[in-house]
Specification:
By secondary structure, this protein is mainly beta. It is about 5% helix and about 30% strand.
């Protein structure tokens, strides 16, 4: 399927990379179809709207930055996403002026069912996580730095 993006132009996307978000994403409830566009380098991808070329979200694997990140997916959310076995979790990244100021949203992860190609941004209630958790924490290895 050919889709239009503002950042990357026209792209040929495989069907298994297209997800239905039945209720949209908070603030974008009318946007229900998205493609996952994996970037070549690093743990990042785009969540690109199929309806609106200039609407995309930068995603990352939250476990790559916070290995101890964990939460319990409420049964109602698991049922809505028809999750029986496989699940992918991503976090929305907000790029700031400097990498050190950039954040990811651990309070509302994007939960994906790759088998049914369903997705939802799930707001975790009673959670210690933030919507603006620093992407890089003090002492964390950064690209270009060495440990010597």
């Amino acid at each position: 399927m050919i889709i239009e993006t503002a950042a990357l132009g026209s792209l040929d996307i495989q069907e298994e990379k297209i997800y239905c978000f039945p209720k949209g994403i908070p603030g974008f409830e009318q946007e229900t179809e998205f493609a996952i566009i994996d970037l070549q380098e690093g743990p990042f991808s785009y969540l690109q709207s199929l309806k609106t070329a200039n609407l995309s979200f930068l995603l990352t694997d939250p476990f790559a930055f916070y290995p101890q990140y964990e939460f319990e997916l409420p049964d109602t959310e698991a049922e809505e996403l028809e999750i029986t076995d496989m699940v992918d979790v991503r976090a929305i990244v907000t790029i700031r002026d400097t990498v050190e100021e950039s954040t990811l949203n651990l309070l509302a992860p994007v939960v994906l069912n790759p088998e049914k190609r369903l997705g939802k941004q799930v707001v975790l209630h009673r959670s210690p996580y933030l919507t603006k958790q620093l992407l890089w924490t003090e002492g964390q290895f950064k690209e270009g730095e060495t440990s010597c």
